[in-house]
Amino acid sequence: MALFAIPKVLQGPEELNVEGPKVIKTFEIFGLKINFTETVVLEWIVMAVILLGAFLLTRNLKVRKVSKRQAIAEMAVEAITNLVRDTMGKRWLWFTPYIATVFCFSIFGSLISLLGVRAVTSDFSVLLCWAAITFLLITVTKIRYGGVKGYLKGFVDPIPVMLPINILSEVSTPTAMALRHFGNIAGGSIIMGLIYYGLANLSRIIHLQVPVLTVGIPAFLSLYFDLFSDFMQAFIFIMLTMVFISNAGPADDETPQTN
Amino acid sequence: MKLGFLSIDTGTILFTLANTLILFFGLKHFLFKPVNRILEERQTAVDQTLKDAEDARDRAETAETTYQEKLEQVKEESAEMMRSATRRAQKRSDEIIAQAKAEAAGILQQNAEELEREKRRAEQELRSEVSGLAVMVAEKVVEREINPQDHARLIDEFIDSVGDVQ
């Protein structure tokens, strides 16, 4: 056997668990059980990082002779503003900070899994919350531009028989958004877990004290399942949010595709 | 205790909603507001600079037009001055030439008159001399005194015929 004890943390995963976030504490408010989970703590960390970043990037803003930090902040703001303007039209420019919020929250919430913790976005409740906000905004927009009557009439359009299908399609929009994002991130984390688990077992089979095989090989897969997928899902989520919400209202007077 | 992998948890949804709203207002306040303010300020500055540049260009164009006009005017004036000076000089030279010609003509005239007078006087002198001589010769020929008064017609005829021969 080994000449000296290998720390357990270096021996690689011995089991693979597919489970949800830890519940740290449970409150009871008005008879409603409220769970305070691991996800919320991670959200706070992500928020702190994002807000600190925003705070640091916008120190000492100047009109001339901009610093690199300021250039990054300006580029980010202009990029997201242009994206919202091109996708939704000028009317929705006030909406830009929300899109930026979801985008940053999603990306950093997914990337936090690189630190070895659960990704915020592998908790379905989080995605459901964001999808619900999108759904709410779609509905509000439809009522605002079509009136309550017009909104309700949309469900029996073109013929009343379509009512169940229309309700289904209305509900499926946010559900599909949430499930898509959740499935990609959570699925990616399961695949990465499987790969680490498998490579650690393979190392044990060939009698390696330290699972050397888990070094390097997963990094390439992680490029896709963590970096690329995290970025793509965040982008897809905000694009769908923008398209669905702006499509709920009438077309902008100006063509949205400027530049 | 752990939740299920695909669980829907009310607490998480509510906390996430609150967190999202906090992050929304946080980003709006810490990122979008200051950056957009700076972008607007820069836009204003750029617009102002462009406007100033345009004003300066307009002023320069106006000044150029004015100078061009003045230059044209000056050129016109100088050309006019040249022309009038040339005209005056021409006139003056014509006058001088005409005067010189007149003077020369006067002198020639005078000379001719002088000559004529000299000629007349010489003729006169010659005539009186010849008439005296003729009288003398005739006296010698006829041996008697001839009264010049009596024979004046004769003598004149003689002289005229002599003069014609010349």
Features:
heterodimer; A: 259 residues; mainly alpha; 6 helices; B: 166 residues; 2 helices; rod-shaped
Task: Describe what you observe in this structure.
The complex is a heterodimer of chains A (259) and B (166). By secondary structure, chain A is mainly α. Chain A has one domain (20-248). Chain A is 63% helix and 5% strand. Chain A contains 6 helices and 2 strands, in the order ββαααααα. In chain A, strands 1-2 form a two-stranded antiparallel ribbon. In chain A, helix 4 (124-153) runs antiparallel to helix 5 and helix 4 (124-153) runs parallel beside helix 6 (217-248). The termini of chain A are far apart. Chain B has 166 residues and is mainly α. Chain B has one domain. Chain B has helices at 10-142, 152-165. Chain B is rod-shaped and about 200 Å long. The N and C termini of chain B lie far apart (173 Å). At the A-B interface, strand 1, strand 2, helix 1, helix 2 and helix 3 of A face helix 1 of B.
Quick overview:
By secondary structure, chain A is mainly α. Chain A has six helices and two strands, in the order ββαααααα.
Number of helices, where a helix is a run of at least 4 consecutive DSSP H or I residues of chain A: 6
User: What can be said about the biggest beta sheet of chain B?
Assistant: none
Q: Name the beta content range of chain B.
A: under 5%
**Main interface by residue count:** A-B, 54 and 37 residues
Major sheet summary line of chain A: 2 strands, antiparallel
Characterize the overall form of chain A. Answer: globular
Which H/E pattern describes the elements of chain B?
A: HH
